[in-house]
Write a structure and sequence with these properties.
Elements (H helix, E strand, L loop, with lengths): L24 E2 L3 E6 L4 E4 L12 E5 L6 E4 L10 E9 L4 E11 L3 E3 L5 H17 L6 E7 L4 E4 L15 E9 L5 E6 L7 E4 L4 E4 L7 E9 L2 E13 L8 E4 L2 E4 L6 E10 L8 E8 L5 E7 L6 E2 L3 E5 L9 E2 L12 E10 L8 E9 L2 E2 L3 E7 L1 H28 L1 H10 L11 E6 L8 H21 L3 E2 L1 H4 L5 H10 L1 E8 L1 H5 L1 H15 L4 E6 L3 H6 L7 H10 L1 E4 L6 H11 L10 H14 L18
Parallel strand pairs: 1-7, 2-7, 9-16, 18-28, 29-30, 29-31, 31-32, 32-33
Antiparallel strand pairs: 3-5, 4-6, 6-7, 8-16, 10-14, 11-12, 11-15, 13-14, 15-16, 16-24, 17-19, 19-25, 20-21, 20-26, 22-23, 23-25, 26-27, 26-28
Helix pairs in contact: 3-11, 4-11, 6-8, 8-10
Length: about 625
């Protein structure tokens, strides 16, 4: 590489085939690799298999040399060179073997006379990147924890490299890397001598690593203008971790009620981050009985698993214990993780009742270390029950109001439905269902005329619809005294319908009819229905001492009244009137007779009382 020779020392395994015999014990041959231009000191003690003994004598090639320096050049590569080794002890025992020397050229580096440091730096980086990507005994990988001292050896034990005979120099180089893995710079660590310490004549370097010390460390041995790169060590720095006592932080109080009876309780646990699995983690939720015994509510021993118990579910929500990342470069601040982990844990309480109010407890255990027990107070909210009771009462009142409003507005249809639900009819033993009593004068103003006309018209429509018969003096036109005719037809009627207007109150004849009907009612003959209009009661009250006034007041107070209001519909009026009328079955037996009677009255009446469009009534008929 670049014309430089690199030196490799390789000691092979023993070969049992070739044996050189001397007196005593003959050992197998030993093969030795020596680098070109890198002197090697051969001794009997070089073979680590032999037992070293200070009372032994080493002979090389049957001479008196205890060691010999082997310094070969590249021309000796193809030569077969060997040495006869003898180890003779004072007690007369002898061990002998033969060492075969294999000469290797490279990986020695010939340094230039100028820019020597630049050449070494370039060669170190090139060789480092080469051996980083291949399987090589020359490349080592070490992990250490931040600020934890570590020692790197220039030549490892049992390495293929060796220190040369004579004086030499050892230098250490650091190659820094970027986050993407590319080399950033290579420099002699002597530049930052305060960060490193040397031992054993620089054969060992001691590092107290911060993240700045992450990188690739290379040892270079230099002798003269020759150098050998003996090792590369990739050093990555793990974040320092601490053994922390587990902690728990939880909400101190939880409030529930009958409507909100599922509650989630969340806590944050603090544990150290120096584990890489979930062993040793346990979260226990419990109550204490009156005797102080723990009653387990829920318990977790695994991460990301929901445990279901009768009263609750519980979970450790996330895997907090991640393996610490080992930085091979100097990380930025945001890349360094916190030495402790937040451990979210949760408990879901189900179907809470008032009796569950009280205290529950939670405990976190991690690696045989236990946190303080946290207390959580469960409070039952009585206000919600009060609000619910008030709401129920308010709802009942509102419902009663709605029912009252509906009953008032639709009371007559409802009552009719209820009364007729059983199909029961009143006794029908009279000719007429009702006799009509009203006052109609041609001198009325238009509003009064329309009111009377409308009430009479709607009443007769209802009677026709129900096939009910009625007696109207202005339609029948019977001859004879008026009072006798009225009383006779009153006796033939189930009801008398009084259409009470202001004008009716002022008419003496109509007050007499009401008095007579009141006497009939007291004899249980005829009942009265009063249709009140606006202003009628006021007119009666302001009428002074008129005849039959007391009877008219008694009729209004004691009778079943129908209230006529301006703007009301015919349907509403008919419902009230229908409810006041007797419930008679006249669907068949009166159909023909009533129809003939109605047609006779219609054709024979020379002076009808009114028309549907509000025509005037001929008052001379009264």
């Amino acid at each position: 590489m670049g014309g430089y020779f690199f030196i490799v020392l390789f000691v092979t395994s023993f070969h049992l085939s070739s044996v050189y015999s001397l007196s005593g014990t003959t050992l197998p041959d030993h093969n030795l690799t020596v680098l070109v231009d890198w002197p090697f000191n051969l001794t009997c003690n070089h073979d680590l298999i032999l037992n070293k003994n200070n009372s032994s004598e080493c002979l090389i090639n049957n001479g008196s040399h205890s060691s010999i320096i082997i310094n070969l050049d590249k021309e000796d590569v193809s030569k077969g060179i060997y040495y006869n080794m003898t180890l003779r002890s004072l007690n007369g025992t002898c061990k002998s073997w033969r060492v075969w020397v294999q000469v290797e050229s490279g990986p020695t580096l010939t340094l230039p006379t100028k820019n020597e440091e630049e050449a070494v730096t370039e060669a170190v980086q090139t060789d480092a990147l080469y051996h980083q990507n291949i399987t090589s005994e020359k490349f080592n990988y070490n992990e250490t924890i931040l600020l934890q001292s570590i020692r790197l050896r220039c030549i490892k034990e049992n390495s293929e490299f060796y220190y040369p005979v004579g004086s030499y120099e050892i230098n250490w180089y650091q190659t820094e890397f970027l986050r993407n893995g590319n080399a950033k710079a290579t420099y002699n660590v002597q530049k930052y001598a305060d960060r490193f310490h040397y031992l054993d004549n620089r054969r060992i370097i001691q590092i107290n690593p911060t993240f700045y010390e992450a990188g690739l460390y290379t040892c270079v041995v230099k002798q003269g203008n020759k150098a050998v790169i003996t090792s590369h060590t990739q050093l990555c720095i793990k974040q320092q971790t601490h053994e922390l006592h587990p902690l728990l932080q939880c909400n101190d109080e939880i409030t529930f009620d009958n409507l909100d009876n599922r509650k989630n309780i969340s806590c944050i646990g603090q544990i150290d981050s120096n584990i890489i699995d979930e062993k040793g983690i346990k979260v226990t939720w419990f109550r204490l009985t009156s005797g102080g015994i723990e009653e387990i509510i829920c318990e977790n021993t695994k991460l990301n698993e929901v445990k279901e118990f009768e009263q609750a579910n519980c979970k450790i929500n996330d895997l907090p214990n991640r393996e610490r990342f080992c930085f091979e470069y100097s990380p930025e601040g945001h890349e360094v993780e916190n030495p402790q982990e937040s451990l979210p844990v949760s408990l879901l309480l189900k179907n809470l009742r008032r009796s569950d109010a009280g205290q529950i407890y939670v405990r976190l255990e991690h690696l045989n270390r236990t946190s303080e027990v946290r207390t959580i107070q469960l409070n039952f909210n009585n206000l919600n029950d009060m609000y619910m009771a008030v709401g129920i009462v308010g709802g009942v009142i509102f419902l009663l109001f709605i029912c009252g409003f509906v009953a008032h507005k639709y009371r007559h249809p409802i009552l009719l439905k209820f009364r007729r639900h059983f199909g029961k009819y009143d006794k029908d033993d009279k000719e007429y269902v009702a006799i009509l009593s009203y006052f109609f004068d041609g001198e009325f103003d238009q509003e009064a005329r329309d009111t009377v006309d409308r009430m009479i018209s709607w009443t007769k429509h209802l009677f026709e619809k129900k096939n009910y018969s009625y007696y109207d003096a202005q339609e029948h036109m019977e001859l004879g005294p008026w009072a006798e005719t009225f009383i006779r037809n009153l006796d033939k009627s189930h009801r008398m319908i009084v259409f009470m207007t202001e004008e009716y109150v002022k008419e003496a004849k109509k007050r007499f009819e009401t008095k007579q009907a009141l006497e009939n009612m007291r004899k249980n003959k005829t009942k009265i229905i009063v249709v009140k209009t606006k202003g009628a009661e006021k007119a009666l009250k302001e009428s002074g001492n008129i005849k039959f006034k007391r009877d008219l007041k008694a009729t209004i107070r004691g009778m079943r009244n129908v209230v006529y209001k301006h703007g009301m519909s015919e349907a509403a009026f008919s419902d009230m009137m229908d409810y006041a009328l007797p419930n008679l079955d006249r669907s068949d037996k009166h159909d023909n007779s009533e129809e003939d009677n109605y047609e006779m009255h219609k054709e024979g009446s020379l002076n009808p009382s009114f028309t549907s469009n509000g025509a005037t009534v001929d008052s001379t008929a009264l």
